[in-house]
Amino acid sequence: MTDVRFLKVVVFVNSLIPLVLLLWDLYRKRVGPNPLQFATTTTGMLTLIFLSLTVAITPLRKIFGVNSLVKLRRMLGLFAFFYGSLHLLTYIAFDRGFNLISVVPDVVRRPFILAGMIAFLLMVPLAITSTNKMVKRLGGKRWAKLHRLVYLSVIAAVIHFWMLVKSDTSLPLTFAFIVLFLLGYRLLTRYMPAQTDTSLFPRE
Asked: How many beta carbons lie within 10 A of that of residue 144, not counting itself?
C-alpha cells in the first residue's frame, strides 16, 4: 500500500527543486546574457509541465490502477498556479515595469500573451476553490465541473508556447501531442462501456 503522506512530501520537495535551481543560477549569474528571458522561459515551462502532470493524473491512475495518485492532483495543480504566477510576475515586473495599464494594449497587440493570460486566468478559480471547504461549499458535482477548466487552461498554455517559439517548434508540438493524448484518453474512457477495464494492472 502506497504511503500517500510520504508520496506527497516527495512530490512537494521535488516540485520546489526547480525554483531553488533557478534562484541559484540567477544568483551565480549562470543564466546567459538575458536573465529576464531565462527566468520567464523557465517559469513558463514549469507551469506547462505541472499543468500537464495535473491532467495526466487520471489517465495514469486508470492505466496503472494506482488510485492514490489522485491525492497528488491538487498539489500539482497548485504548483502549476504557483509557477504560472511567477511567470506572470516576471512579465509584469520586467517587461511592463509594473505598469499594469500597459498590460491591456500589450495583450491585444500580441496574441501569444493573450493565450498565456487566458491560461493563467482559467487557473485562478481552480486555485481559489482547491480547498476541502470549497469542495463542500460548491458540492462535488459542481466542483468537478468547474475544475474541468484545467483542460482549457493547458490547451491555452500549449498555444501560448507554440506562438511564442519562432523557429524550432518541436518542443511545443511535443507538449501538444502529450496533451492531446491525455485529453483523448479521457474522452475514450468516458464514452467506453462502463464494464471495460482500461487498467494495465486490474485488481482481482
From this structure: 11
